[in-house]
């Protein structure tokens, strides 16, 4: 039933593996995909992953730094797998405790882990127990209790014994009615109003209920973080040399009060070489989650992130002099950096040069909801490309919003006046391809690409109309534009101001692209332009939400309304701002 089971160290050394009978395909591909897309991307919240026809379940052993992975065909419903993977983990740890305690990769390689026989026994046990628990056969009507009753006994009469209590009203009140504590059976209910009410406040006195004095200062100290710290200039030959900025991560613990101050103080007592359990971390994780949400990380993502951190740390042995809070904080910090660090580098300048060699234009499509800054940032990117010596054709494919074409024409005029044709052998460096309003956007994009190819433009930037993610006809039209024209890059433009909405926007944009794709491997969002970063102070959570959902990098950050206000993201600085109390 199982395709494979493998046990490997976090350093990548395979300690033992099993391949199911009749399975010829290597499982290296699915396991590598799991490591790349889930474990390295800090998505270990729910322990499963689907890769093509396979379902993979995995378990992290943080004490011995091991990963247990099982794979089976996704059409199978194997109810025993979760327990089985736990059993294998426990058994393997118990049996090879001494070998695993020896540190160092060489020691692990030199040990032989003859686990095959134990594994087979465990597997047989798991399969047998699942069969034993198999679905019970349906009883016949004669065997059922109902068949033993007479029809009369089932009729319910008003005021009679069988009148049922109204469903769902029982727990509506959190107040408890007064009840005699010494009697076991519930006392007959007295009429309301005459009874004493006990409020569920845990017996606290008035002193405890006085919230007028706060513990510590909740204000965001130094919240006027300049966005420049969290972004770097985009690579431009004429850009001034980057002034290196350093960020101190330790400030969180040293601050008195603050959101983290309380949390850190609370668990300071827990020091020593202790193996971390979920309970130890619960309160710290809860505070971290609230903190991330306060920094504008979408609630769903904050929850998943904290869950993933907990999974990563469960069972890990803490060093002496480290607190639970600092361990969790460090793990979360690492996770955040990992999420923001692109797993794939988008190097537009290099890709444009490659397209130049192939004598074709490099095509970028901009999409996103209304008013997020698609056209403005498209103009900024045009400027950046022109500064780098490329020619740009802007395709006005927003044929929907009044003024959209004129807005682009104004940008084209301004950009050409900044880089006059006289400086470029009499040729305008940027041109607008437009066909007015009401026409099919996909058709205009296609014509523009053909025009750019004929006129030897280096880049085509396709502006599209803003659309809400729930507007099915407009989403279908966008998916069609992308499916028909196959751009080199699909950029999703999103505001840094967005909170929980980020998840919905990105999931639905990607879903629409996938649903209307004509190929097996649909073109989804390749990168993100995060706009209005200058307006958010240190609430930089949208960067995390967007990269977490898509797994794609933030290619540009818009930091204002001039052509120069385009930067790239500085992941470490963003994480520093996120962790700041
Ligand atoms: N502060 C700030 N404002 C921005 C930024 N990017 C865009 N804007 C402003 O946001 C507003 C909307 O920008 P547009 O480029 O028209 O947005 P759009 O997404 O093309 O809008 P639609 O085409 O209507 O969907 C304009 O006033 C821009 O100046 C940015 O990075 N920072
Ligand atoms: Mg626009």
From TrEMBL:
It is found in: Endoplasmic reticulum membrane. One of its GO terms (cellular component) is signal recognition particle receptor complex. Its main location: endoplasmic reticulum. Residues 553-566 form the SRP54-type proteins GTP-binding domain. It is a peripheral membrane protein. Pfam families: SRP-alpha_N, SRP54, SRP54_N. One of its GO terms (biological process) is intracellular protein transport. Keywords: Endoplasmic reticulum, GTP-binding, Membrane, Nucleotide-binding, Receptor. Residues 132-238 are annotated as: Disordered. Residues 218-229 have a biased composition (Polar residues). Belongs to the GTP-binding SRP family. This is SRP receptor subunit alpha. The gene is srpra.
């Amino acid at each position: 039933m199982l395709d494979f089971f493998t046990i490997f160290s976090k350093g990548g050394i395979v300690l033992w593996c099993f391949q199911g009978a009749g399975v010829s395909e290597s499982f290296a591909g699915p396991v590598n995909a799991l490591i790349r897309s889930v474990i390295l991307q800090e998505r270990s919240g729910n322990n499963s992953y689907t890769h093509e026809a396979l379902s993979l379940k995995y378990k992290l052993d943080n004490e011995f730094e091991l990963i247990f992975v099982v794979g089976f065909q996704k059409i199978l419903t194997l109810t025993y797998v979760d327990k089985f993977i736990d059993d294998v983990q426990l058994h393997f740890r118990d049996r090879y405790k001494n070998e695993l305690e020896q540190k160092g990769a060489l020691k692990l390689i030199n040990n032989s882990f003859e686990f095959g026989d134990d594994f087979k026994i465990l597997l047989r046990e798991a399969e047998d127990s699942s069969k034993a628990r198999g679905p019970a056969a349906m009883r016949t009507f004669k065997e059922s209790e109902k068949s033993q009753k007479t029809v009369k006994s089932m009729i319910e009469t008003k005021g009679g014994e069988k009148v049922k209590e109204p469903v769902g009203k029982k727990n509506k009140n959190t107040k408890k009615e007064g009840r005699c504590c010494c009697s076991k059976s519930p006392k007959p209910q007295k009429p309301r109003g005459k009874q004493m009410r006990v409020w569920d406040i845990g017996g606290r006195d008035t002193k405890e209920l006085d919230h007028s004095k706060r513990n510590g200062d909740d204000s965001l100290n130094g919240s006027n973080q300049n966005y420049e710290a969290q972004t770097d200039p985009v690579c431009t030959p004429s850009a001034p040399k980057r002034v290196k900025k350093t960020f101190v991560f330790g400030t969180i613990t040293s601050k008195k009060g603050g959101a983290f101050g309380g949390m850190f103080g609370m668990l300071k007592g827990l020091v020593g070489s202790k193996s971390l359990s979920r309970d130890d971390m619960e309160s710290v994780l809860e505070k971290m989650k609230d903190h991330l949400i306060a920094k504008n990380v979408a609630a769903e993502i904050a929850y998943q992130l904290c869950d993933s951190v907990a999974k990563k740390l469960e069972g890990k042995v803490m060093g002496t002099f480290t607190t639970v809070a600092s361990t969790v904080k460090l793990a979360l910090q690492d996770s955040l950096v990992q999420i923001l660090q692109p797993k794939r580098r988008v190097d537009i300048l290099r890709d444009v040069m490659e397209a130049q060699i192939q004598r074709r234009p490099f095509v970028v499509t901009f999409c996103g909801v209304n008013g997020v800054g698609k056209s403005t940032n498209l103009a900024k990117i045009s400027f950046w490309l022109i500064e780098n010596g490329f020619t740009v054709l802007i395709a006005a494919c927003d044929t929907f919003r009044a003024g959209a074409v004129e807005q682009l024409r104004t940008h084209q005029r301004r950009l050409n006046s900044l880089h006059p044709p006289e400086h470029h052998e009499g040729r305008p460096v940027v041109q607008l391809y437009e066909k007015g309003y009401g026409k099919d956007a996909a058709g205009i994009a296609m014509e523009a690409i053909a025009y750019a190819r004929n006129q030897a433009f280096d880049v085509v930037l396709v502006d599209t109309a803003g659309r809400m993610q729930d507007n099915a006809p407009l989403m279908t039209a966008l998916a069609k534009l992308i499916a028909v024209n196959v751009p080199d890059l699909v950029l999703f433009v999103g505001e840094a101001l967005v909170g929980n909405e980020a998840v919905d926007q990105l999931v639905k944009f990607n879903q629409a692209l996938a649903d209307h794709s004509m190929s097996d491997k649909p073109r989804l969002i390749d990168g993100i332009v995060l706009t209005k970063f200058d307006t958010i102070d240190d609430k930089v959570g949208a960067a995390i939400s967007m990269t977490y959902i898509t797994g794609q990098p933030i290619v540009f950050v818009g930091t204002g309304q001039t052509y120069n206000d385009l930067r790239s993201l500085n992941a470490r600085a963003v994480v520093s701002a996120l962790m700041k109390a």
